[in-house]
Amino acid sequence: MRMTVPTPLGDIAVRCYGAPGAPALLLLHANPGDGRDYDAVLPALADRHRTFVVDWPGYGESTAPEPQLVTPERLVEAAGQVLDVLAEELGVREISVLGNSVGGYVACRLAEGRHAPSITALVLVDPAGFTRHTALTRWFCREVMGRPGRARRLVVPLARAYLGRLGTPSVRATYERTRQLPEDARRLAVHCAIWRGLADPVFGLADPAVLDLPILLLWGRRDPVVPAFLDGRRARRALPVRTLSVLLPTAHEPYNERPDLFLRHTLPFLKDPRAVSASRRPSRPRRR
């Protein structure tokens, strides 16, 4: 089943899988990419959950009439509209949210805002929002990855680095889709707008420590975009003390690179988030 949710950013495509009576799960992908990035783990997730897979505006089957408007903060608003439609049209009143990179940032913001009562758990996979703002990071986001002329040359090499081992059909398919991005002006414009938004003063989490729900934080030890020893450490310190934190031997997209390992941690958590987060201590990164 496929739904289309109209938003100010464009029509957002949402694919629906699993039985209507199963616990609900929303999947939010990284930038660039689309919902197909989760294909390697989708069958296992949908077997246990009513799973909703979003394509961000301008990616996959979603539209973006004005690509420059697609910023992280507006993605939060668009995702909130998706949750509203799921509640109104499908009766989804409670849902877990799994997000990678900017999708992880959006998941946190949803849990901070008016949708907090409906969100039962978060799975944050190398989430954005925990990078320290400096003159260098702002310059990189705005003037390098935020400028189409420069980003066009860097987006594919960067994807090759953050995708890690191209050892699964899913990760190879994600890489091939990214290779097409430099020649797609609209997708490239969306990609750059989101990067520029990461340097915006309004970008950021209010106080992650007060999030009152179970959280599983998964981080790739070899992530070159948001490094585990910097951003990952800041995330572990900022999130609630009961957050279950796991360091994985992957790059930026563990579900793509090591779907088996990703599911080994994610499925038990989603089955009973409060029991798992209460019974297990967070893991700590090994010293290098």
Automatic annotation (TrEMBL):
<dbReference type="GO" id="GO:0016787">
    <property type="term" value="F:hydrolase activity"/>
</dbReference>
<feature type="domain" description="AB hydrolase-1">
    <location>
        <begin position="23"/>
        <end position="257"/>
    </location>
</feature>
<dbReference type="Pfam" id="PF00561">
    <property type="entry name" value="Abhydrolase_1"/>
</dbReference>
<dbReference type="InterPro" id="IPR000073">
    <property type="entry name" value="AB_hydrolase_1"/>
</dbReference>
<dbReference type="InterPro" id="IPR050266">
    <property type="entry name" value="AB_hydrolase_sf"/>
</dbReference>
<keyword id="KW-0378">Hydrolase</keyword>
<protein>
    <submittedName>
        <fullName>Alpha/beta fold hydrolase</fullName>
    </submittedName>
</protein>
<dbReference type="InterPro" id="IPR029058">
    <property type="entry name" value="AB_hydrolase_fold"/>
</dbReference>
